[in-house]
């Protein structure tokens, strides 16, 4: 009786597939790492340019909100970039001062001609009352229920009059105004009809600072520690 040798074992075909999968995973990890590194470098570079432009002591924080970064860089267009900065120098009517904080969302950000241009910008800025008083040329302070009081000295009827304006702050045509205003001169409340006539001219004694990037004021909210402003703009050059 002849003994037949056992048949040869079939070759394993799983190993090449495993190697391919591992190689693909490594490649994806490298691409993701390169994307993140490129994003971080770009954010730091833009932050440095912004710091030079707006003059902050600390570098503003820049964040590319959408991924992947590299494809947006190739297209030279980013969906959204978030920007935040603190202690931003600004100039007012009678003095220089600072905004405590600036937070902006930049949409449709385009790269070209060595500058960044945002199609639309929305955000907020915050300044405490001490800074606003210095910048505006008149003392402003918080009173309950979201209202503020502004001390003023202004010419009325050929005489210089001092008093206080109290009301809820709003933005009208890009300027600060007050609703439900109350006006006191010498501690005496003036009639509402006279308040309505004098309000606009008296508020000229208090001016808001020039905003970074020539953004427009859209809203204002009185907080206990300061005023929070809503900001907006279109086709704004952010960094050169």
Distance between the termini: 93 Å
The rounded Rg comes to 30 Å
The helix/strand class is alpha+beta
Whole-number total of structural domains:
2
Shape: elongated
How many strands, which pairing sense, and closed or not: the largest β-sheet? 6 strands, antiparallel
The number of distinct β-strands equals 11
- Strand order, sheet with most strands: 1-2-3-4-11-10
Q: Please estimate the helix content.
A: 25-40%
Poorly predicted runs are: none
Mean pLDDT: 80
Portion in strands: over 45%
Q: What is the string of SSEs from the N terminus onward?
A: HEHEEEHEEEEEHEE
Q: If helices are DSSP runs of H or I spanning 4 or more residues, what is the number of helices? A: 4
Pfam families: LmeA
Organism: Microlunatus parietis
Protein name: DUF2993 domain-containing protein
What does this entry look like structurally?
With about 240 residues, the chain is an alpha+beta fold. It folds into two domains: about 25-130 and about 210-240, no CATH class; about 140-205, no CATH class. It is built from four helices and eleven strands. Strands 1-2-3-4-11-10 form a six-stranded antiparallel beta sheet. Strand 7 (about 160-170) and strand 8 (about 175-185) form a beta hairpin. The radius of gyration is 30 Å and the shape is elongated. The chain starts with 13 loop residues before the first helix and ends with a strand. The model has no long low-confidence stretch (mean pLDDT about 80).
């Amino acid at each position: 009786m002849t003994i037949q040798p056992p048949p040869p074992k079939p070759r394993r075909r799983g190993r090449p597939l495993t190697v391919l999968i591992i190689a693909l995973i490594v490649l994806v990890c490298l691409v993701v790492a390169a994307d993140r590194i490129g994003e971080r470098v770009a954010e730091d570079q833009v932050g440095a340019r912004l710091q030079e432009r707006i003059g902050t002591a600390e570098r503003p924080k820049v964040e590319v909100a959408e991924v992947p970064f590299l494809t947006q860089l190739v297209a030279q267009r980013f969906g959204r970039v978030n920007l935040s900065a603190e202690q931003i120098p600004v100039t007012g009517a009678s003095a220089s001062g600072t905004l405590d904080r600036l937070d902006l969302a930049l949409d449709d950000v385009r790269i070209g001609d060595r500058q960044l241009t945002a199609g639309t910008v929305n955000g907020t800025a915050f300044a405490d009352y001490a800074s606003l008083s210095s910048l505006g040329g008149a003392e402003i302070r918080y009173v309950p229920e979201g209202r503020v009081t502004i001390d003023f000295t202004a010419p009325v009827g050929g005489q210089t009059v001092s008093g206080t304006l109290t009301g809820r702050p709003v933005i009208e045509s890009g300027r600060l105004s007050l609703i439900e205003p109350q006006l006191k001169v010498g501690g005496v409340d003036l009639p509402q009809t006279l308040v309505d006539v004098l309000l606009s001219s008296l508020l000229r004694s208090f001016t808001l600072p020039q905003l970074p990037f020539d953004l427009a004021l859209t809203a204002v909210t009185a907080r206990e520690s300061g005023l929070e402003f809503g900001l907006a703009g279109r086709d704004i050059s952010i960094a050169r």
